């Protein structure tokens, strides 16, 4: 009975992670198309959700990497019930670390890697349970670390060359005509990225559920992926994608580069090619790293384009810290839950883990609902520092941070406050009389309203629905 309870908790939490992966990474496929107005925001996320669903059925190579290439299964004697339960708790704690980091970075609009959050979570929990021998370090290095370092660089170079080539070939074409044609092309290229994202990222959750089924004795390690696992993961990531993830979409679409449709198509084509290739090879690549590298490359490749390297630097910090911090969270969750389990039972320890997850998610969602980012303001212009939309969250420091513009605080301190508030979505959106709002009840009629408020007062931009 205890094993069944833990298994159900793990499967449910794995699908919850898949959902957060969907809305956190929607920006990878659709941010540039939304920014260039090739697609309306809600149309874009609906299309991305559908293609994520389809993509999840195309391959299982990455799932095999996750199931067998991170946690050292040989260190667990799965014929012993206590050892099997211990492995299940490792998987559960790893998922919790991944979810909490995903939601934390989403709250601040940072496009960190959902994949690395999951991998970091599994690594941290495995180390807590078994020490460093609990991790398959060769697999982590070859299938995760090396691709993480190489992918954004390669994506950026390909996008930069592609963007430069596009502008050179179309230099005699009228700008309006050129942009309109590339907007049509972006529908296809963005769709390809969404398909690639489903092919790559849904498999990671499939691998986790497969690992849990092996631990519980319901599957052999050499068995094929059950269809119900593939289908449930496909539906979860598609639903998450449809939820929007407007905070990260805003950062990638408007925060890095003021992107045009030729740049957008070049970036999306670069991302899709690299993600699909890596998925075929079984590499657990971060689609976030690829997409961000491509967008930066499109900014470098366009003559006279302005890249906000300060925002890119903050993203880089999030990338570097994702895996170790997610590992630290899951290490702590496993350690505390194991202490509770030793004092009581494994079932109680697992429920304690779930309590940690529920508390963390509740606090983050509460914060997000108080400071909404939604489909109406996702395309508002950012200020010159990439800190906040100029409309509704004024470019002036005092207005955004809630501090008086005549404050005695230093500019550096005010800039820091501005960044935190802007990425959290504070002060965005305007009322009809020109004021700002952070009403948590706005948008309750939208499917995404539990996490992202996606409807609100009219803003200076036209409503995209």
From TrEMBL:
<keyword id="KW-1133">Transmembrane helix</keyword>
<dbReference type="GO" id="GO:0016020">
    <property type="term" value="C:membrane"/>
</dbReference>
<protein>
    <recommendedName>
        <fullName>Phosphate transporter</fullName>
    </recommendedName>
</protein>
<feature type="region of interest" description="Disordered">
    <location>
        <begin position="383"/>
        <end position="465"/>
    </location>
</feature>
<keyword id="KW-0813">Transport</keyword>
<keyword id="KW-0812">Transmembrane</keyword>
<dbReference type="InterPro" id="IPR001204">
    <property type="entry name" value="Phos_transporter"/>
</dbReference>
<keyword id="KW-0472">Membrane</keyword>
<feature type="transmembrane region" description="Helical">
    <location>
        <begin position="316"/>
        <end position="334"/>
    </location>
</feature>
<comment type="similarity">
    <text>Belongs to the inorganic phosphate transporter (PiT) (TC 2.A.20) family.</text>
</comment>
<feature type="transmembrane region" description="Helical">
    <location>
        <begin position="149"/>
        <end position="169"/>
    </location>
</feature>
<dbReference type="GO" id="GO:0005315">
    <property type="term" value="F:phosphate transmembrane transporter activity"/>
</dbReference>
<feature type="transmembrane region" description="Helical">
    <location>
        <begin position="117"/>
        <end position="137"/>
    </location>
</feature>
<feature type="transmembrane region" description="Helical">
    <location>
        <begin position="87"/>
        <end position="110"/>
    </location>
</feature>
<feature type="compositionally biased region" description="Polar residues">
    <location>
        <begin position="456"/>
        <end position="465"/>
    </location>
</feature>
<dbReference type="GO" id="GO:0035435">
    <property type="term" value="P:phosphate ion transmembrane transport"/>
</dbReference>
<dbReference type="Pfam" id="PF01384">
    <property type="entry name" value="PHO4"/>
</dbReference>
<feature type="transmembrane region" description="Helical">
    <location>
        <begin position="225"/>
        <end position="244"/>
    </location>
</feature>
<keyword id="KW-0592">Phosphate transport</keyword>
<feature type="compositionally biased region" description="Polar residues">
    <location>
        <begin position="393"/>
        <end position="404"/>
    </location>
</feature>
<feature type="transmembrane region" description="Helical">
    <location>
        <begin position="346"/>
        <end position="366"/>
    </location>
</feature>
């Amino acid at each position: 009975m205890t094993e069944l309870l833990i298994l159900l908790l793990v499967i449910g939490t794995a699908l919850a992670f898949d959902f957060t992966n969907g809305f956190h990474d929607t920006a990878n496929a659709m941010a540039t198309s939304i920014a260039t107005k090739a697609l309306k925001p809600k149309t874009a996320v609906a299309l991305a959700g559908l293609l994520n669903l389809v993509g999840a059925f195309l391959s299982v190579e990455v799932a095999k990497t996750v199931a067998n290439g991170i946690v050292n299964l040989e260190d667990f004697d799965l014929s012993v019930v206590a050892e099997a339960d211990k492995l299940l708790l490792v998987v559960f704690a790893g998922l919790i670390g991944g979810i909490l980091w995903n939601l934390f970075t989403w709250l601040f609009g940072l496009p960190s890697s959902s994949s690395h959050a999951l991998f970091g979570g599994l690594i941290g929990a495995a180390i807590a349970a078994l020490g460093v021998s609990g991790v398959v370090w060769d697999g982590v290095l070859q299938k995760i670390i090396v691709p993480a370092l190489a992918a954004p660089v390669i994506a950026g170079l390909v996008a930069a060359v592609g963007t430069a080539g596009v502008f050179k070939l179309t230099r005699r074409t009228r700008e309006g005509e050129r942009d309109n044609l590339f907007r049509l092309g972006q529908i296809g290229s963005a769709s390809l990225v969404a398909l690639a994202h489903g092919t790559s990222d849904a498999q990671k959750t499939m691998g986790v559920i497969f690992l849990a089924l092996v631990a519980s004795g319901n599957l052999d390690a050499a068995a094929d992926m059950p269809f119900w696992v593939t289908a449930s993961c496909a539906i979860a990531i598609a639903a998450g994608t449809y939820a929007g993830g407007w905070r990260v979409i805003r950062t990638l679409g408007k925060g890095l580069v003021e992107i045009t449709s030729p740049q957008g198509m070049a970036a999306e084509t670069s991302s899709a090619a690299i993600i699909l290739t890596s998925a075929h090879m079984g590499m657990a690549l971060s689609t976030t790293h690829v997409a961000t590298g491509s967008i930066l490359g499109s900014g470098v490749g366009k003559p006279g384009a302005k890249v906000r390297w300060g925002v890119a630097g903050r993203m880089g910090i999030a990338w570097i810290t994702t895996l170790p911090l997610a590992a630290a969270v899951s290490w702590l969750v496993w350690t505390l839950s194991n202490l509770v389990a030793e004092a009581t039972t494994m079932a109680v320890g697992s429920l304690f883990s779930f309590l940690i997850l529920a508390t963390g998610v509740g606090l983050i969602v509460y914060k997000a609902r108080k400071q909404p980012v939604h489909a109406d303001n996702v395309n508002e212009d950012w200020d010159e520092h990439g800190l906040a939309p100029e409309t509704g969250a004024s470019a002036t420091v005092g207005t955004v941070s809630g501090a008086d513009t005549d404050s005695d605080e230093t500019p550096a301190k005010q800039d820091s406050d501005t960044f935190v508030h802007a990425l959290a979505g504070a002060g965005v959106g305007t009322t009809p009389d020109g004021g700002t709002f952070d009403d948590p009840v706005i948008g309750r009629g939208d499917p995404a309203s539990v996490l992202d408020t996606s409807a609100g007062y009219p803003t200076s931009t036209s409503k995209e629905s």
